[in-house]
Amino acid sequence: MTVKESSELIKRRLKTIGIEPINNIVDITNYVLHELGHPLHAFDLDVIGANEVKVMKAKEGVKFTTLDGKERILDKNDITIADANSKPLCLAGVFGGIDSGVSVKTTNIFLECAVFDAISVRKTAKRHQLNTDASFRFERGVDPDMCKPAISRAIDLILEHAGGALEQGVIDTNSKTREKCKIDFSPVRCQKMIGLDIPFSKMENILTDLDFEIEKTEGDTKWICYAPKYRVDVTREADVIEEILRIYGYNNIPLPEKLNSSLSYFNQNNSERIRTGVADMLSSQGFNEIMNNSLTAEEHSSVCSSEVFGDAVKLLNPLSKDLAELRTNLAYNMLQAASFNMNRKSSNLMFYEFGNVYAKAESGYKEKHILGLMKSGLTQKEGWLNGKVKTEMVHLVQSIESVLQNINVPYSISQTGSSLEIKSKKVIIGSARKATSKELKHFNIKQEVFLCFLDWTAIHKVNTPAIKYSSVSKFPEVQRDLSLLLDEQIKYEELEAIANQLGGKILKGVSLFDVYEGDKLPKGKKSYALRYTLGDHSKTLEDKTIEKTMERILNGYKKQFQAELR
Predict the structure, then answer these.
(1) pLDDT winner (highest mean) among 40-54, 284-298, 371-385
(2) CATH of residue 226
(3) Which of 59, 277, 422, 566 is deepest in the core (most CB within 10 A)?
(4) Are residues 366 and 508 in the same domain?
């Protein structure tokens, strides 16, 4: 036997279906696979030695190099074809080994054709991230009666195109023959499930055309159906009904003229209603909702680590490296979505997402429901009436406040390092920050991105105060401003607390409208400009009352913070 280039006919036919020719032996196994639908594999007989092979489970941790040149660590549940010394030659039903593969030096081959357990093949293929033509077919079930025709066809082609002689005939090691699956079937029940009176004769014609055998036990009311051996997926009456409906045509089932449904009562304060209200509000503000897969790539964990609340939960058999673990925060997906849009020339972005995040805990696993917000680019489209206004953290804070105010949650926002901490009654309910340069580089983003993550689970545990109604005052409110020189470590919330303490009933609100830090101020100092709103529902305020109140607040600042009036 000579291993060489395949004939032009075989090469042309393989290329037509997208398979690159390798050599005449390998090409013939691929040819038969696609011709008859049954995988087979050729081994270099001289490499095997002792003319003996074993089908066995692998030893845990054994290293095995497959035909693609990659070294893989075998699992104890992997089924292998091994030599007499139990050395793996092939991952059964999935991929061959590089050491026993056919090469130009091969002069003797051993040809194998078998049926492997679909579940075992699927798990092995996923475990080693291998998706081959053989595994694709074994995972879905193959016809056990096709082994002999497939190997006989391959032998004939090898003798024709590679020469040599058949040293030993086909050895059949099958100890038992698989019987056809016997299924009790009721045509009447089939009509009820489909919702249409398909004639019994039509059902019989469909099944016989699909190679089913039918035995009628009680006239037309009860049948016994024998599924063909190659239909390993048909094992129940429901499977037979599905076959009938598939051939009859789903589009031939008429739609009902009316639809019945029952109404359910929901508590007005249920979490779903609140979430829907917040989503509607954000959408009305120009945000777009995004929904992402909870599975993500391991490489993101080391990049987006700011909001991680535990070790990642990794999948034992991931579909791919991009879906290898459960996300521990929403930053991965939001930055991926931003990068996707920016690469398509859409750079002014406002996203929100309600999603779960997961982590390992000492007692098992933990899960949180998070609302993520993201802003980037310009605050509005550039036009002749307005210039370019870049999104800053203050714009994201405005959206955070609107969310919390919408659900009546008391809150305070303070700066901790490079991020903002959001609290409600001393409970941390979220954080906001600017995406780091490391994150931007990882996702190939070339503009600033601002992120916020609100712990929706923690927010629902906060007892929100009852909403109180008060009539609009008949009397005007007044405003007064104070510009203060303060030590740079003093926070706005401390100033607000003192004002609320000393302002009395007529102080209706405090806001910060300017912060200045620069060379014109003494070292270690900053300037805060605050605006105070004062009013009385029962009368018009007199200047004397207003001045006394403002003086009291200013003296409190001087005493508490050594503030100076600018």
Answers:
(1) 284-298
(2) 3.30.56.10
(3) 422
(4) no
Q: Which two tokens stand for residue 96?
A: 């061959």
Pick the last residue of a domain from 400, 431, 461: 461
Do 318 and 406 belong together in one domain? Answer: yes
Check residue 109 and give left, alpha or beta (phi > 0: left; psi -120 to 50: alpha): beta
d(CA 44, CA 53): 12
Q: How many other C-beta atoms can be found within 10 angstroms of the C-beta atom of residue 92? A: 27
Q: State pLDDT tens for residues 87-110.
A: 899 999 999 998 888 888 889 899
Range of the domain at 98: 8-162
What CA–CA distances, in Å, run from 84 to 48, 110, 113, 232, 266? 8, 14, 19, 32, 68
Cα maximum dimension of the chain: 117
Looking at residue 250, the DSSP 8-state letter turns out to be G
Residues 193 and 336 in one domain: no
Q: Is the pLDDT of residue 46 over 90?
A: no
Residues 419 and 303 in one domain: yes
> CA neighbours within 13 Å on the CB side: how many for 271?
9
pTM above 0.70, yes or no: no
Residues 227 and 339 in one domain: no
What does the alpha-carbon distance between residue 238 and residue 252 come to, in Å, rounded to a whole number?
19
User: What are the structure tokens assigned to 228, written together?
Assistant: 């063909």
Are 317 and 387 in a shared domain?
yes
Which helix (H) or strand (E) covers residue 526, if one does?
Answer: strand 525-534
Domain count, the chain: 4
The pLDDT tens digits of the residues spanning 514-542 come to: 888 888 888 889 999 999 999 998 899 99
Pair 276, 398 in one domain: yes
Residues 300 and 445 in one domain: yes
Question: Token match 């699992």: residue?
Answer: 75
**In this structure, which amino acid lies at residue 410?**
P
In a domain, 466, yes or no: no
Q: For residues 200 and 188, what is the distance between their CA atoms, to the nearest angstrom?
A: 9
Give the span between the Cα atoms of 31 and 25, in whole angstroms: 10
Closest CA to 454 of 397, 504, 522: 397
Order across the sheet with 427-434: list the strands. 288-289, 349-361, 364-376, 449-455, 427-434, 419-424, 412-416
CATH number for 107? 3.50.40.10
Q: Are 48 and 178 in contact (CB under 8 A)?
A: no
